[in-house]
Amino acid sequence: MSSKPEQKETHQANGAVLPIVPVDCLTSPDRGELVEPSDFLGPDSDGVEVVVLESRANAKGVREEDALLENGSQSNESDDTSTDRGPEPASPLKETSFSIGLQVLFPFLLAGFGTVAAGMVLDIVQHWDVFKYVTEVFILVPALLGLKGNLEMTLASRLSTAANIGQMDTPKELWRMIIGNMALIQVQATVVGFLASIAAVIFGWIPDGHFSIDHAVLLCASSVATAFIASLVLGMIMIGVIIGSRKMGINPDNVATPIAASLGDLITLALLSGISWGLYKELESKAYVNPLVCAFFIALLPIWIIIAKKNAATREVLYSGWEPVIIAMAISSVGGLILDRTVSDPNFAGMAVFTPVINGVGGNLVAVQASRISTYLHMSGMPGESSETAPRKCPSPCSTFFSSDVNSRSARVLFLLVVPGHLVFLYTISSMRGGHTTLTLIFIVFYMTAALLQVLILLYIADWMVHWMWGRDLDPDNFSIPYLTALGDLIGTGLLALSFHVLWLIGDRDSDVGD
């Protein structure tokens, strides 16, 4: 029996109850130095177990205790007060399936209707002269619509994590995050827009062997201007959404990324169509306008680079965040090539209106999941650390979808939203007579199969990719979402084209093509 009185005060950290020893008890009264742990033990090594709690900074530089979400929808699960159990992994997101679904549902539907509107716009503008005679513009569509995954969704995930762990609580911190991140996405948007136009020129030239310098400059000017303006508008919307979510007690991870996509597709596609149409009109009479527009936005690059470099929150991303956005742009461009080859084929009638919908819904859902997993990991430590919350590099499908942890629960909720969501969106398209096609039962079955398979693959890849990047000392907020949304574009476009092809082979599309 130890002569030391038993410590009655307890403190709960990361779900485990640990005894607290005041700091002054750890110092020798005559020396003012720290007492060795052995001094607390009796002669028989039977003493009170002492645990010294440190305020270790987590990945975002704040106290781990302050990282817990103050979410009104958290379940009122009772805390385990038993001291017999060892420390458990942090569970910062104590949300029920109902609360997750409730928070995600409205932004998901809003984002879905945004993709429906984008599909209706694409269904109309595909008949414009600029899309008929400069068909490479179709290759730009998935790449530029994918900017919401490359830039805006990454921005939303980054700011959501910062808000959840307390890095945007003071006005000074808030403005620092806003200015740095806005400058950063303008740099990324300009560069990615320029590279997307080059990819469109190359992918358009390879099959036909035809190259036009005027069309190449038109693609460059349209792409850069669209990317710049769309990122500016959507970035400001994202900041407002995240600040408002925190004030309303809503987890920004559940709403920010879908809302980024709700207006993202529509705004980007409308800008691309309008800008490319206007520049195409000036191509013959004022050929100098296109290179001037391209040069103007590229000349602004040094200003945004200087601003982003001065901000510690964005300096690292400015140097290291290029690989995912560039590779994601290339992946999306492959999906654009598929769209370019199918949209003008009468056997694929309706492909234009459904492509933004299936790609947008899949990208929105997987972005929510990736953002949630990233926030969950950030609350347990820093990227690269060995943590019990990031135990697996290649998870099994059962652990991804059927385990009891909060991320598996959210994966099930997001997957279950696919069918009812797409049914609503298909009905909306049919009511607006979009796509020049009639919805038959067999078409809906093939379409739903493609949509479910796309989301199933994306959610599994997200579970593997976020944990894999975390173990490799890469911040998933900056690296995972661009890859996932780009893969969503490629998988969605490919599966949709395959579905249309099979439907044409069995004759279902023959009687459905409208005027």
Automatic annotation (TrEMBL):
InterPro entries with a match to the protein in the record: SLC41_membr_dom, SLC41_membr_dom_sf, SLC41A1-3
Give start and end of each SLC41A/MgtE integral membrane domain.
Answer: 141-275, 355-498
Residue ranges spanning the membrane: these are 104-124, 182-204, 216-243, 255-275, 287-307, 319-339, 411-429, 441-461, 481-506
Instruction: Alphabetically list the UniProt keywords.
Output: Ion transport, Magnesium, Membrane, Transmembrane, Transmembrane helix, Transport
Where, subcellularly, is it found? Membrane
Its record classes its membrane topology as: Multi-pass membrane protein
Which biological process terms from the Gene Ontology are attached to this UniProt entry? metal ion transport
List the Gene Ontology MF annotations in alphabetical order.
inorganic cation transmembrane transporter activity; monoatomic cation transmembrane transporter activity
Looking up Gene3D superfamilies in the UniProt record yields:
SLC41 divalent cation transporters, integral membrane domain (1.10.357.20)
Key word Ion transport present: yes
Gene Ontology cellular-component terms for this entry are:
plasma membrane
Q: Does the keyword Magnesium apply?
A: yes
As recorded in UniProt, coiled-coil segments are: none
- Which intervals of the chain are annotated as region Disordered? 1-46, 60-94
Q: Name one Pfam family in it.
A: MgtE
Q: Tell me the function of this protein.
A: Acts as a magnesium transporter.
Q: Which family does it belong to?
A: Belongs to the SLC41A transporter family.
Q: What is this protein called?
A: Solute carrier family 41 member
Tell me the organism: Pelecanoides urinatrix (Common diving petrel)
**Upper taxonomic classification of the species?**
Eukaryota, Metazoa, Chordata, Craniata, Vertebrata
